[in-house]
From TrEMBL:
Gene3D superfamilies according to UniProt: 1.10.150.130, Intergrase catalytic core (1.10.443.10)
Domain Core-binding (CB), first and last residues per copy: 63-144
Gene Ontology terms describing biological process: DNA integration; DNA recombination
Protein name: Site-specific recombinase XerD
Pfam families listed in its UniProt record: Integrase_N_phage, Phage_int_M, Phage_integrase
Family: Belongs to the 'phage' integrase family.
Region Disordered, annotated ranges: 366-399
Positions of the Tyr recombinase domain: 165-349
Organism: Geodermatophilus amargosae
Amino acid sequence: MAGSIAALKTSDGTTRYRARYRDPSGRQHERRFARKIDARRWLEEATSALVTHTWTAPERGRVTVAVWAEQWLSAQVGLKPSSRQRYASLLRAHILPTWGAHRLADVRHADVATWVARTLECGFAPATVRQAHRVLSLLLDLAVRDGRIPRNPAQRVPLPRVTRDEPRFLTRDEVERLADAAGEDGDIIRLLAYTGLRFGEMAALRVRRVDFLRRRLTIAESVTEVAGQAVFGTPKTHQQRTVPLPELLVDTLSQRCAGKHRDDFLLTTSSGTVLRLRNWRRLVFDPAVRAVGLTDVTPHDLRHTAASLAVASGASVKAVQRMLGHASAAMTLDVYSGLFDDDLSDLAARMDAAAREAASARVGAVWAQPSSGQAPGRKTAARHGGPRGDRTHNPRIKSPLLCQLS
């Protein structure tokens, strides 16, 4: 794998330096330089990459980012339609205008960091900047695995912090007033606020997945609007779950089931079509919010409200996680950690009470010991002639106090 450098005379009399080496397959690579030091640096970099097994064929990195992004996106078979649309939008709006004409091998770490900083300076939200960087990093990861570039230049780039907005929680009274203002769709608001379903999960709920006897909802499907089309798929975490159905919703939902087949949607528009978030919010939810005098309330806030009401009713973190369909209890705590502050206060109070009880029991045990009981082998004052300080090793010598009394 060792290379060589040779000096060559050109037709105009100048000297050029040709550096050459062979790759693991035996194929020869060469490049010519005006200075010998440049030829040596290029050869050393290639040799180092060969030794560390990070070498890639130069021609494989000549693919442009635009061509590679199209190939990468078409290979993402596990994406939900909404995620695919989001990735395509980020590529079109943020990544390809800057990187589309660059070859994969020409993308540098410092340039990616500069691009992130400039995108943030243009006024885009930190979350959008992080998402755009993630898509660029993902397609460069595939280029590394495909042997087109030795490493991912987008890794370890400083990213802006994303501050999470405080969740908005409604009270039970606000939920009921909002449901009353929504008219015939009041049961939809109550269902979202008391079960924590995502809107797409609620819209895709079918009659056969409602168990009125056990008061359970089986969440196995979700619907999302993508490019104006209703696209059905699995829930967000790809996991089916069971959600408790409050008794106050049994009568209204059973009326919704009247005359429907098992595979029909439980909740629909007045014309019987699938509910779409944008239309439902514009026609039903936002007017109801204004009618009751609330501000800055979104349909997703009903999901937050369900978590708040569940915790107030004594639900554990694990129970809230299962109800909401979060991937882990850690995610539930990340979003709703403030709801469990009262639990921490109660826990501290119970621990203090237990500690005081243990201390009282220990003091009582000490006072309950008999005064005459002595541990075996312990020396007493009676055997050795008087209190501490008046003892002597000579039993014939009395203490001063006894001498005075005699």
